[in-house]
């Protein structure tokens, strides 16, 4: 009896170890394939652009700061693998290309052109030296109240333009999908310090980007409205405005108030808890401010 128990225990351990080994091999293989494809894509891209640096990457795309070989213009290129199954199913490249081609607005990223190569689909966009709103806040700290108001005004105008003029809902509003640009004003000794302060506070332009999932339900993130997150409702203009409100909170306090609920495995907890403000938390906040 004891020998049988030992035998089955050893067999079970071997199965577990074998499974873990297989998973590790698959993970390493997947990582190697990703690196290989990325290198091949860069080789394709280098026939048109000089890549300066990799800015970031997502589920379906890699973002580079680059320079056109033809005229030396600095641009941002979004490179997508042509045979990515997620890209094929979501039609992300065509969605973004078509939306940016017809939606011209001061607070929507400008698309210069799109290109196709053997392996890649490339979207050429205007380059933002300040990066995304997330990058900007990590570097410079929280926005001031005046800056947050300006951000809301600009992005609300862009969302209304998308919905009222083109019946488009963004579906993926988050700090990483908002780019920051700065207007430069010439300094003058005649201007008061207060006027200079107002100029600096109003010199930022915010632009929406990443429209690849605007025609799908793939873009569920930490800034999604609760009923959309749990699958009880579809994305609408109202859900975009909810996300914009959470983005504004993040810009002012550098945190997402509902992050812990969006990361839980039980999605119903998010719906049950995120809209219920606890009186004790509110009182503690204001008491802390007074002290």
What does this structure look like?
The chain has 291 residues and is of the alpha+beta class. It folds into two domains: 38-127, 2-Layer Sandwich (Phosphorylase Kinase, domain 1), CATH 3.30.200.20; 133-280, Transferase(Phosphotransferase) domain 1 (Transferase(Phosphotransferase), domain 1, Orthogonal Bundle). The protein has eleven helices and seven strands. The strands form two sheets. The chain has a five-stranded antiparallel sheet with strand order 1-2-3-5-4. A hairpin with a 5-residue loop joins strand 2 (61-68) and strand 3. Helix 5 (145-166) runs antiparallel to helix 8 (237-253). It starts with a helix and ends with a helix. 26% of the residues are buried. The mean pLDDT is 81. One of its GO terms (molecular function) is protein serine/threonine kinase activity. InterPro entries: Atg1-like, Kinase-like_dom_sf, Prot_kinase_dom, Ser/Thr_kinase_AS. It comes from Blastocystis hominis. Residues 49-291 form the Protein kinase domain.
**Overall tally of domains:** 2
Helix content: 40-55%
- N- and C-termini, Cα separation: 70 Å
User: What name is given to the CATH topology of the largest domain?
Assistant: Transferase(Phosphotransferase), domain 1
User: Could you name the CATH class of the largest domain?
Assistant: Mainly Alpha
Low-confidence stretches: none
CATH superfamily of the largest domain: Transferase(Phosphotransferase) domain 1
Element string (H = helix, E = strand): HEEEHHEEHHEHEHHHHH
Radius of gyration from the alpha-carbon trace, in angstroms: 24 Å
Strand-pairing-aware structural class:
alpha+beta
How many individual β-strands? 7
């Amino acid at each position: 009896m004891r020998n049988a128990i030992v035998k089955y225990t050893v067999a079970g351990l071997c199965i577990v170890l074998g499974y873990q080994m297989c998973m590790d091999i698959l993970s390493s293989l997947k990582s190697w394939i990703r690196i290989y494809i990325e290198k091949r894509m860069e080789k394709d891209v280098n026939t048109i652009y000089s890549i300066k640096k990799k800015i970031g990457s997502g589920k379906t795309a890699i973002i580079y700061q680059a320079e056109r070989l033809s005229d030396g213009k600095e641009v941002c290129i979004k490179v997508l693998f042509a045979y990515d199954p997620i890209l094929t199913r979501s039609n992300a490249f065509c969605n973004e290309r078509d939306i940016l081609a017809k939606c011209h607005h001061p607070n929507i990223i400008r698309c210069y052109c799109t290109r196709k190569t053997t392996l890649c689909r490339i979207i050429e966009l205007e380059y933002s030296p300040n990066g995304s709103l997330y990058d900007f806040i990590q570097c410079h700290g929280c926005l001031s109240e005046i800056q947050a108001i300006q951000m809301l005004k600009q992005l609300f105008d862009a969302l209304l333009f998308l919905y009222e003029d083109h019946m488009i809902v963004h579906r993926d509003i988050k700090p990483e999908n908002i780019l920051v640009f700065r207007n430069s004003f010439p300094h003058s000794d005649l201007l008061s310090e207060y006027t200079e302060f107002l100029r600096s506070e109003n010199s930022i332009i915010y632009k929406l980007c990443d429209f690849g999932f605007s025609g799908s339900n793939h873009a569920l993130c930490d800034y999604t409205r609760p009923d959309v997150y749990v699958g009880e409702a579809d994305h609408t203009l109202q859900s975009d405005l909810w996300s914009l409100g959470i983005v504004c909170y993040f810009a002012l306090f550098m945190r997402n108030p509902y992050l812990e609920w969006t990361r839980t495995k039980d999605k119903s907890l998010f719906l049950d808890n995120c809209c219920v403000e606890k009186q004790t938390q509110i009182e503690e906040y204001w008491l802390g401010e007074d002290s």
